[in-house]
Amino acid sequence: MKILLTGTAGFIGMHCALRLLERGDQVIGIDNLNDYYDVSLKKARLAKLTPHPGFTFIRAAIEDRPRMDSVFADTRPDRVINLAAQAGVRYSLENPHAYIEANLVGFMNILEGCRHHDIAHLVYASSSSVYGGNTQMPFSESHSVDHPVSLYAATKKSNELMAHTYSHLYGLPVTGLRFFTVYGPWGRPDMALFKFADAMRTGRPIDVYNHGKMIRDFTYIDDIVEGVIRVLDKLATVNPDFDPLRPDAATAAAPLRLFNIGNGKPTPLMDYIAALERALGLTASMNMMEMQPGDVPATSADTSALRDWVGFAPDTDIEDGVARFVEWYLNYFGRNES
Question: What amino acid positions are annotated as catalytic residues?
Answer without folding.
Answer: 152
